[in-house]
Amino acid sequence: MASIVDVPSWDDPRLAGYRGVSDPTALAEQGECLIEGRLVVPRLLDLARKSARWQGRLQSVLVTPAALDQLAPALASHDRLTVYRLAAEHWTSLTGFNLHRGCLALAHRPAVPTLETLSLDGLQCIVVLEGVSNPDNIGGIFRSAAALGADLVVLGPSCGDPLYRKAIRTSMGAALEVPYATTAAWPGALSHLQTQGFFVAALTTPPADVMLPDWTRPRQPIALLAGAEGHGLTPEAQALASRRVSIPMTGRVDSLNVATAVSIALYHAGWTPHRDTPD
User: Fold this and answer.
1) Stretch (H or E) spanning 34
2) Which of 177, 119, 125 is nearest to 148 (CA)?
3) pTM of this structure
4) Crossing angle for the helix pair 258-269 and 135-148, nearest 10 degrees?
5) In a 10 Å sphere around its CB, with 0-12 CB exposed, 13-18 middle and 19+ buried, how is residue 23 labelled?
6) Residue 126 to residues 188, 207, 257: CA-CA distances in angstroms?
7) Which CATH number fits the domain that encloses residue 121?
8) Which CATH number covers residue 28?
9) Domain containing 167: what range?
10) pLDDT per residue as tens digits for the range 85-119
C-alpha cells in the first residue's frame, strides 16, 4: 500500500504542485501535469505500473478521505507512492473548483516525439489535427482514437494540450495512453506522411471530392485530417490532402463538432477491432 500522509491545511508547502491546477501553462512549462477524478486517476496508477511511457513519472496523489477509501484497491500495489490526504473542506481553497471528485495526481510529463523523428512502420490509421485547441474536443478525439483503433494522433500548429487536466478527463484517460506526436512543419507534414505511404483524407464541409458513405478506403495506411470548428482546415492543408471527404448532413446545421466528425470518419474507415478491414 502507498504511504498515506495527512496534511492539515491547503497551504501546506507539500501541496505546492497541486496549486498549479489554476495555471496550466506554468504547470506544463515545469514539465508536469495534473490528472483528476476517481475514474481517471486509477488509469494512471495502472499505467505507472505497466507502461514504459509512465513508469517513474507519478509523483504523488492527493485525495479526500472518501476518495482514499474508493481508490484503496488501485493504490495497493504502489508501495513507494506518497498519497496526501486532505480534508474535503480545504479543497476549494487549494484548487478553486470542485470537479475533481476529491482526487488529483501529479506526474512528470513524458517526452513527446515529433512526427518527423517517429517511425511510422506498421501504423495503419492516424488522426492529424490542425488548430484544434478546445480541450473538450482534444479529449473527445483521443477517446474516439482509443475506442476506434487509431494508432497515433498528430498535433499540428495551435492544437491544444492532450495532458491538460480537462482534456485528460474528457478523454476518460485515453490521452494518457494513445500515442501522439507534434509537428511544426506545417502543412509540409502532410507531404511527409504521403512519402511514408499514407493516404491523407481531409474532413471538410461540402463541396468535397467524395461523400463519406461513397468513399472506399484505399489499400494503404490512412491519415484522417481534421481542423478546428469555425474555420475548419486551411486551404493550404486541403491542397495537400490526397482527397477531401465530407459527411452528409441534413442542412439544418453547416458542420459537425470536430470530435464527432473524427469519430464518424474513424468508424467508417473500418478500424474498429470487431470489424474486418474493408477493401
Assistant:
1) strand 32-36
2) 125
3) 0.92
4) 10
5) exposed
6) 16, 24, 19
7) 3.40.1280.10
8) 3.30.1330.30
9) 115-269
10) 999 999 988 887 766 689 999 999 999 999 999 99
